[in-house]
Amino acid sequence: MRIRLKKLKRISWYIIWSAFLILSFDSCKDKKHQITVVESGIIHQEEEGFVQIFDGATLQGWEGDPAYWHASNGVLTGEVTPETLLESNTFIIWQGGRPADFELKLDFRITESGNSGINYRSERLDTIPFALRGYQADIDGKNTYTGQNYEERKRTTLAYRGEKVIIKSQESAHEPGSLQANVQNNAWKNREVIAKIGSSDSLKTKIKAEDWNSCHLIVKENRMQHYINEILMSEITDLDSVNRKYSGFLGLQVHVGPPMKVEYRNIKLKEL
Description:
Shape: globular
Number of helices: 3
Largest sheet: 10 strands, mixed
Strand content: 35-45%
Helix content: 10-25%
Distance between the termini: 75 Å
Order of helices and strands: HEEEEEEEEEEEHEEEHEEEEE
């Protein structure tokens, strides 16, 4: 009888211990599954944070000169022909707001003779139709400037491709003419290169000529990063409290010059 009781006790403990191990294993599986779900949810939320701001078929929500801009088959096209040569740069401007901190993703394709760019945190000019003044992610068909940070109608080149730069205010900033006086060789004089991402030529090899490339802009507070094909091309930290802007219009450019065509698609914005 005692032997049987001991045996039963051993069996009972074995059953209890086995059940504990199974429950523990299931609990671990559940935790792992929960982590996966949470991680997946975060990724999903990040992707869902982006909103399509071009419908792929019309210019609804955008304002520009229809002589230069049209939409069809999922593509927003800017085109200059021999009959429509420009006297000044013209933009198609998004009417959905004036983003401050944001991420923008899109694809672009441009002809070899083309010159374009993505303006952000920009001001509209009263004196020229569809003109913007402000930060620009530069794009050109020869990929000489693609990826750099160029400020249209203002401080000009802030960061060349391959540079991380700190931007500072000019001396005597409030004196008339001080802005133009601090531009030299089409670049802002009060800029300090603090690091090199890579050479301009090596980064150029990552950009496809006359083919689709992806562009990703990350603009937060006073830091602006330009990515092409998921590769960082330039970065600025703007400490210029006189000239910097924290919000403004978003627009796409066609530039003065020879006939050209630039195409944009999958235009997505996430405001931060």
